[in-house]
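Running low. Invent one:
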Amino acid sequence: MSKALVTCRAVGLGAVGAATVLALICRRKSIANTVNSFTKKYRTKATVRSTPYSPMPPPKKLKIALCQISVTEDKKKNIETALANIKEAAASGASLVVLPEMWNCPYSNDSFPSYAEDIDGGTSESIAMLSSAARDANIVLVGGSIPERSEGRLYNTSCVFGRDGHLLAKHRKIHLFDIDIPGKITFKESLTLSPGESLTVVDTDIGRLGVGICYDMRFPEMSQLYAAKGCQILVFPGAFNLTTGPAHWELLLRARAIDNQVFVAACSPARSSNANQYQAWGHSTVVDPWATVRATCDHTPQIVYADLDLAEIEERRTGLPYRQQKRLDLYALVDLKTLE
């Protein structure tokens, strides 16, 4: 009889209680063994110090456009508004166009199920519009996000299209927006949505993009991994609210930019005129690797433009050589997906 079982019986636990305790002990040992194995295999000083940063693609110059559009309960109207903004942005010389989070429906748990579309099944009217718009305008398009229905689950999903209208990548929001600020705002995306399970790095002919959605920007490790993978622009369709927006929106965008010495762009919906709908902060913004706000706006419908020279990334990294100064003998950033 094991010492653990004797102890359980000594303190008055029955067979079920003893079995539960033993299961927990075994689980703890299993976790400890996994951690020890990981440590031995991956966390030696030599291995950590040699962890490579992926090289970036050659730097290019481009104009980015953030389409801060009004969102209504009328999906057809939302699609028409998004298309009109994409066309206007392309006509103004933008080669990278971004739409906001949940641009085809009101931002609410009540709306997500009824507005959701089957992207993989090819029956998505919103995705069909985005694909043809990217092709017709000859642009790279980060199509904000829409509610996606897939295999009985709902996701907050962003699709990225190339100049030929081909779907390059699909990002499902990883970190769900579940908050409760007493007297201010309570929202739980997890009541209807499921989280994504992977990072999304997209190579395009204007540069390498790392895609996140709104709440994703609050988690610095995600952006750090994107930078390590050679991303030049981090793109966040988002919809902060009137509590978190004024406090954190610009702060987080500038933090992610200076932490990783990359460009960061975040596109919000315009604030709704319907007081009963979710009120977005607006203020779509582009930040450069020096954490300077290159372009922004207020909460009204408009398109925000910025001219970017991706060569600035290497310039800033040369002046402030964070990567060469990291103490990888003390800490490390690990992409767990690469270890599976």
Notes: The radius of gyration is 23 Å. The chain has ten helices and 15 strands. Residues 15-42 form the longest helix (28 residues). Confidence is low (pLDDT under 50) at residues 2-13, 15-28, 42-46.
